[in-house]
Structure formats: structure tokens, C-alpha cells
Amino acid sequence: MEDFVARYGFLFVVILQQALLGLSLYFPLMTGQLSLASIGFYSLGGYVAAIMGTHPELAPLREALGFFMYPLEWLVALAASMLLGLALGYPALRLRGIYLALATIAFVQILGVVVLNLPIAGGAIGIFGIPQPFEDRLAYVWFFGPLLALTVFFLWRLERSGTGRLFFSIREDELAARAMGVNVTGRKVQAFVLGCALAGVVGAMSAPLLNTWNARQGTFDAAVACLAYVLIGGARSKWGALLGAALLVSLPEVLRPLKDSRMILNGLVLVLACVYMPQGIAGLFARRKS
Amino acid sequence: MSAILAVHDLTKAFGGLMAVSDVSFEVQEGEIFGLIGPNGAGKTTLFNMLTGLTRPTAGTVRFLGQDISRKAPAAIARLGMARTFQNIRLFGGMSVLDNVRVPRHALDKVSLWGGVFGTARSRRLERETLASARELVALVGLGDRMDAPAASLPYGARRRLEIARALALAPKILLLDEPAAGMNQAEKEDLSSFIRDIRDRFGLTVLLIEHNVPMVMGLCRSVAVLNFGQLIAQGAPEAIQADPAVIEAYLGVAADA
Q: What angle do CA A234, A108, A270 make, to 5 degrees?
């Protein structure tokens, strides 16, 4: 058992973290909007935590707050992500489908260039020596676990509320939703900002875990990985993002005994999943139920 | 009686094509107004302009005294104009009940945080919405299919659900785009009496696009006829039936069928 925990415990932490990023894509998807901006907000949240954790001028604040510095970092990352999300959401959500995806990817790229050139973000080297609240990396379960539980609970309540139904009506038929009085743009922005806020907090929690933070945290590759979680898991259910992240994060590790050929099998699983499960893993369960 | 809807010189050009050209008419409060015309006459384009989905090239639409011709569709809907679609546009993956709940939630402008945290106001709104949605679903005869996905319903039931969803907006005027399409004679008669019933029950004004001429003649107090985007006749059903321009454009063909 101890062996198992030592070997796969950290993997479990990463699955929780990536599942949260997958869920941050699910929020805009509730209104039918595919946004890849999450990874940018993840990067932003990480920088907020990294700067607050290392900046010399904040040393007295860190001493005074002790452990509570971390929740404060999350809150600041949350507020920053929501503000930037609002500013980005109103113009970006006028676009639809693949154009929104492209615009959000462009945002991620621009943000990457900006942080590379901001002195406070440490340029290409980034920020290192970020203080860590736990000695054992496994203990980060106490960050990501409750956040995941909270997010799933939030989504569970949201999907059963009037706002959730308005979100889904836009996903089902945007034009009909407009004709039925739904403030489509406003609701899309709401869903988008929720996703941005979640990604920002996940970033703020991840900076201490990784100990360093740099522009490589918010790349196109990472954005595509998040997209793959939702695609493989299923875009129409919150469980899709969870299942997809669990599968895609653990697959390369589970296949490790296969050595070099494991990435081939990994890729094969992705292709087959796209072909045979267009609704994702969660879609298979939904079909069985009905 | 006063005009609830006044359309003045309404025009829509798609490039060089005049889909609707200088159309003017008034709909009186409480009446059932028929809009007829051959395929491609511009009836649906006219509906889309009234509901804000298509922006007019020129002209005005006054609804309840205000000019709505440049307003957004959602704002027009919340003012009290509800519609159905010729090719039925339900929220297919959502349940019958949820389809009818959406317009109420939109009217209430439900709060995201209120819903998630279950505030007293949002719980009260949920209760009221649920009760009124159940009533409307039962009214259109789908009381035993409340939780079925809308897309799983048979054709006629989907048409009726779309009317229930429109009624959930508590509209002053209801726009029906070919509600009898694909129905047999008995179903058409049922639909006619249903439209009269809801008009009386909810104090509605109804604007109806219909191909079926006998149905329009039996149901409507006034009729407007569109052909190639132009209003060629307007008046009481009997007068319309005798109008030579109408007979040439439309009724002559339909009478043979």
C-alpha cells in the first residue's frame, strides 16, 4: 500500500489538478461555447501566487498571515481572473464555434508574450523558490481535493437552477433562446467568467506545488491537453472532464512498462476514442441510461 | 380596440432581392390576424423582423406604442412578443418541463448566485416557475411527458410544446409560424379551437402565418396577403376571398388543391 501511494500518489494529485482545469472548460461549454482560454488564466493565477509568495516587499504580510497567505493568494487570483475574464469575455463571446476557440488561443499566446516581457514575472526564467506549505507533495490533495468537491457541488447546484437551464437553452438552440427572452451574451459571459475564475484559483494552488512558475505553464500544448480531457471525457457532462483528465493523465504512467512504445499506444487510445466515442466516455453512460 | 402592433413601410432587402417591401398593416388587440401568401412570399422574413431576429432595411414596427424595430430579440420577447418557428426549434436535449421553464427564468432574470446558494427569492421563483410550467404543459396535453427529452416527442407534440413554451413568456401577442403544417384535417380543427381557447384564456392577440386557407378564413377576423414581398390585399376574410389580385396570386391555386 505504501509502495502504491509512493508510486502513484502524486499522479493522483495531478489528476485532481487537471480534472479541475477540465472542469473550467465545462463552464463555458454549458452555454455551448468552446473556449481554450483556461490555461491562460491558470498561468495568470500561478503568477499571482508566485509573486505574492516571493516578492520581497510582501515579506511582512507573509509573516503576519502565515499559512493564511495561501488562501489570500487564491482570492487575489480569483479576483484578477474574474476581472480579466470579464474584459476578455464581452468581445470574445461575440464569436462562435471555432472562431471563439481561435480567439481564446490567441489570448493565451498574447498572455505568454506579455509575461515573458514583464520584469515582475521574471522573464524567461520565471519565478522560482515559491514557498511551499507542505513538505510532502501528496499533501496538496488538501488543496485540490476540497476545491474539486466544491466545484462539483457548485455545478450540481447550478445545473438544477434557473441559470443552469438558461445556460443549457443557449447550448441547445441559441436563436430560440434569444426569441424566448434569454440574455444570451450576458449568460455566456457569466459561464465564461466562472471558468476563468476556477482556472485562476487552480493556477494559484499549483504554483507552490511546482515550486517554480514560468511562461511554459501557459502554452498551446497545455491548452490542447485540457481540450482533450473534455473531448475524450464528454463535453455535455461535468463528469466528462473528470473522467477525461483521469484517463489521459494516468494513461502514460500506467503504460510505462511498455517503455518507448507507450506513447504510440497513448495516441492510439486518443484516436480510437474520438472515432468510437464522439460523445466521450460520459456519453456512453448517458446512452445506457436512456 | 386599439392597434397593439403597427407595422409601417417595413422593408428587407437581401442584396438586390426585396424579401419584404414597404409592408404596412395594423393588428388590433385581441384579434386573430392571418398572414397568408405563397411560398417565398416573405412571411417568415416578416416574422423575423417583428421579433428582432432580422434587422429591417427600412420601416418601423410599433408594439404597445414603442418602436421595437431596432431592439434585440430578447428585449422584444420580454416586452411580450412570443413566437413559434416554422421548423420547430425546441431545446431538444432538455426535458419538456425545462423547455417551458426557460422563458420564465429569462423574464425573472434569475440570479446565478441566488440559484446556487438557494436564497429565499430564488426558491420562491423556482416554485412559481415550476407550478406555471406544469400548468402550461398540461394545457397542451403533455402532462404525462413532463420529464421526457423534447426531441423524443412525436411531431404534433413538439408543435404543441413550442406553443406552451411561447405562452410561458406571458405574451401580449403570440406569433405562430405555420402551426398546422403537417397536420391532418381533424388535427387542424383541434388546433383552431385551441388557438381560440388560449386567445380567450390569456387575453392574447394572435398573429398567424398559415398555408391552409380554410383554416385562416375560419379563424381570423382580418387577413393580410403577401406575394413576392408585397402586401397585395388586406381586410376581412370574405373580402379577401373575392379580391381578384389574391385569387390570381394564391387562392386560385389553393382552391384546386
A: 30
All structural domains of chain B, each given as residue ranges with its CATH number in brackets, are 1-80+171-257 (3.40.50.300), 92-168 (no CATH)
Nearest to A172 among B94, B115, B169 (CB): B94
Cell numbers describing residue B116: 446556487
B132 touches chain A (CB under 8 A): no
Cα separation, B103 vs A181, whole angstroms: 6
The radius of gyration of chain A from alpha carbons, rounded to an integer in Å, stands at 19
Give the residue from chain B lying closest to A172, CA to CA.
B91
Report chain A residues touching chain B, CB-CB < 8 A. 154, 157-158, 161-166, 168-169, 171-173, 175-184, 190, 236, 290
Any A CB within 8 A of B66 CB: no
Chain B residue with the nearest C-alpha to that of A181 = B74
Beta strands in B43-182 (DSSP E): 58-63, 66-67, 81-83, 173-177
Q: Which of B102, B122, B132, B162 should one mutate to test binding to chain A, selecting the residue with the greatest count of A CBs within 10 A?
A: B102
**pTM of this structure:** 0.92
Q: Which string of DSSP letters, residue by residue, matches B116-143?
A: HHT-HHHHHHHHHHHHHHHHHHHHTT-G
Gyration radius from chain B CA atoms = 19
Reported as a single tens digit per residue, the pLDDT across B171-198 is 999 999 999 988 888 889 999 999 999 9
> What digits encode the pLDDT tens for the residues A235-267?
888 998 889 888 888 887 887 787 777 778 777
To test the contact with chain B by mutation, choose from A152, A165, A193 the residue with the greatest count of B C-beta atoms within 10 A, namely A165
**Domain segments of chain A: what residues?**
2-220
Q: Quote the cell numbers at residue B121.
A: 427569492
CA B58 to chain centre: 22
Which residues on adjacent β-strands are paired with residue B7?
A: B25, B61
In this complex, how many residue pairs, one in chain A and one in chain B, have their CB atoms less than 8 Å apart? 106
Q: Measured between alpha carbons, how far is B223 from B237 in angstroms, rounded to an integer?
A: 6
The enclosing H or E element of B195 equals helix B185-202
ipTM for the complex?
0.92
